[in-house]
C-alpha cells in the first residue's frame, strides 16, 4: 500500500515536473536558455561577486553548488540561504582551495564550474606565498583537476583586469586588452602580490586547459562595485567605502576600470552559456584613473568628506569590453554603479 502510494506519487510528480519544464521552456526558451535544472558549482559563492553570481544562476533556473570556507559561520551562509530559489536549488559545500578532496565533493555531478574563489587582498601581507599565491594558483589547479575528473563540460575562471594591465610600459596603441599580460617582474619589485597571484593563476588555468583538454573561459573584471549581498565588505567595496571617511588610500600602479557586481555575474553566465565565447574577457563599463573616479564620487556626494587624490600618471589607454558587448552584455554606467554602491552602504550602515 505504501509502495503503491509512493509509486503513484512518483507518477504525479513526474507529470507535474514535465508540465513545469514545458512551461519554463515556453517562457525562457527564446533567450537561448536550455539550462533548466542544470547543476553548476560556484567556488567562493559566499563572497561579494560569488553571491551575485549564485543569485542570478538561481534566478535562471540552475541548481547551484556554492562553496564557503566555513559552513558554521552564518556570515558566509545566511545571505545565500535567503536568496530566491535557494531552498530547493542551492547546496552549500565547505571547501579549502588547498584541500583537493573537499573540492571534488562540491564539483561532483556538475555540468559547469565557476571558479570565483581566490584571496582578494590588495594591501601588503606578511606571507604572500601562503596568503595569496598558493590558494590562487594551487587552488585553480585543484578546481580544474576536479572539474576534469568529474567530466565538467566548461569552466569559467574569474581572473582580473589586474592580470592584464599592471605594467609601467603598456603601449598607447593597444586595441584589445585581452592581448595584455601584467608585468610580473615589475610587480615583484613593487611588492604587488595580488596582481601576481591573479596573473599566475590565470596562466596556470590556460596551461591546464591546453595540456588536459578542458574547456576554460576567463572573465577579467576591473574594480567591482555596487550593492553588497554578504554582511562583510570585500576589498573593492572597502576601498570605496573608506573614501566616505576621507581616506586617501589609493591602489598604486593599478590601471582601473569599473564594473557593477551584476554585470560581472552576467558576464560569467554569458561566457558559460554561449559556446562561441572563447579566451579572456575584459569586464568593465569604463576605464579611468582612480583619481578621476574619486573626483566623480566627490562631485556626486559633496556632503561627504570624499578627498581629492593627486593626479596619477597612468597612460591614456582606452580599453573596451567589446567581446562581452558582442555576447550581449550592456554595461551599467559608472555613475549608476556609484549611486547603487552608496545606497547599499547606507542601508547596511557602513556610511551614515
Ligand atoms: N572585487 C573586485 O574588484 C575584483 C576584481 C577583479 C577580480 N576579482 C576576483 O573575483 C573573485 C571574488 O572576489 P570578491 O571581490 O568577491 O572577494 P571576496 O568577497 O573576498 O570573495 C573571495 C571568495 O573566495 C573565497 N576564498 C578565499 N580563499 C579561499 C580558500 N583558501 N579556500 C576556499 N575559499 C576561499 C572566500 O571565501 P570566504 O567568504 O569563506 O572567506 C570568498 O568566498 C576573486 O577571484 C577576485 O580575485 C575581484
Ligand atoms: C589618466 O591621467 C593622465 C594624466 O592626467 C591622462 O593623461 C590620462 O589620459 C588619464 N587616463 C585615463 C584612462 O583617463
Ligand atoms: C553568442 O555570441 C555571439 C557573439 O560572439 C552572438 O553573435 C550570438 O548572438 C550569441 N548567442 C546567443 C544565443 O546569445
Ligand atoms: C578584505 C575583506 O574584508 N574581504 C572580505 C570580503 O567579503 C568576503 C565575503 O563576506 C569575506 O570573506 C572577505 O574576508
TrEMBL record:
Q: Which residues form the signal peptide?
A: 1-29
The record ties this protein, via Pfam families, to: Epimerase
NAD-dependent epimerase/dehydratase domain mapped to chain residues: 40-277
GO molecular function annotation: oxidoreductase activity, acting on the CH-OH group of donors, NAD or NADP as acceptor
Q: Which domain of life is it from?
A: Eukaryota
Write out the entry's keywords from A to Z: NADP, Oxidoreductase, Signal
Protease found in the keyword field: no
Q: What is this protein called?
A: Cinnamoyl-CoA reductase 1
Amino acid at each position: 500500500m505504501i509502495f503503491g502510494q509512493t509509486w503513484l506519487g512518483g507518477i504525479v510528480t513526474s507529470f507535474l515536473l514535465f508540465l513545469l519544464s514545458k512551461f519554463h521552456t515556453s517562457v525562457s526558451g527564446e533567450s537561448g536558455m536550455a539550462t533548466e535544472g542544470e547543476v553548476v558549482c560556484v567556488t567562493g559563492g559566499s563572497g561579494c561577486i560569488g553571491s551575485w553570481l549564485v543569485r542570478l544562476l538561481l534566478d535562471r533556473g540552475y541548481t547551484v553548488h556554492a562553496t564557503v570556507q566555513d559552513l558554521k559561520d552564518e556570515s558566509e551562509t545566511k545571505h545565500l540561504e535567503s536568496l530566491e530559489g535557494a531552498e530547493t536549488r542551492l547546496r552549500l559545500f565547505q571547501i579549502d582551495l588547498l584541500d583537493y578532496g573537499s573540492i571534488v565533493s562540491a564539483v561532483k555531478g556538475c555540468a559547469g564550474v565557476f571558479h570565483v574563489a581566490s584571496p582578494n587582498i590588495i594591501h601588503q601581507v606578511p606571507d604572500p606565498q601562503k596568503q595569496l599565491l598558493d590558494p590562487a594558483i594551487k587552488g585553480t589547479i585543484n578546481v580544474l583537476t576536479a572539474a576534469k575528473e568529474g567530466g565538467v563540460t566548461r569552466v569559467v575562471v574569474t581572473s582580473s583586469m589586474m592580470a592584464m594591465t599592471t605594467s609601467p610600459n603598456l603601449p598607447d596603441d593597444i586595441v584589445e586588452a585581452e592581448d595584455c599580460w601584467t608585468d610580473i617582474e615589475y610587480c615583484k619589485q613593487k611588492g604587488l602580490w595580488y596582481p601576481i597571484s591573479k596573473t599566475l593563476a590565470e596562466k596556470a588555468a590556460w596551461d591546464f586547459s591546453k595540456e588536459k583538454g578542458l574547456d576554460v573561459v576567463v572573465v577579467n573584471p576591473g574594480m567591482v562595485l555596487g550593492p553588497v549581498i554578504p554582511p562583510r565588505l570585500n576589498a573593492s567595496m572597502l576601498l570605496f567605502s573608506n573614501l566616505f571617511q576621507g581616506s586617501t588610500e589609493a591602489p598604486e600602479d593599478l590601471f582601473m576600470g569599473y564594473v557593477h557586481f551584476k554585470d560581472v555575474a552576467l558576464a560569467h553566465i554569458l561566457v558559460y552559456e554561449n559556446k562561441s565565447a572563447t579566451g579572456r574577457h575584459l569586464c568593465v563599463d569604463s576605464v579611468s584613473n582612480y583619481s578621476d573616479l574619486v573626483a566623480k564620487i566627490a562631485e556626486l556626494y559633496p556632503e561627504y568628506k570624499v578627498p581629492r587624490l593627486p593626479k596619477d600618471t597612468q597612460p591614456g589607454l582606452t580599453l573596451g569590453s567589446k567581446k562581452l558587448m558582442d555576447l550581449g552584455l550592456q554595461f551599467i554606467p559608472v555613475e549608476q554603479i556609484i549611486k547603487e554602491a552608496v545606497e547599499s552602504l547606507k542601508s547596511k550602515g557602513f556610511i551614515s
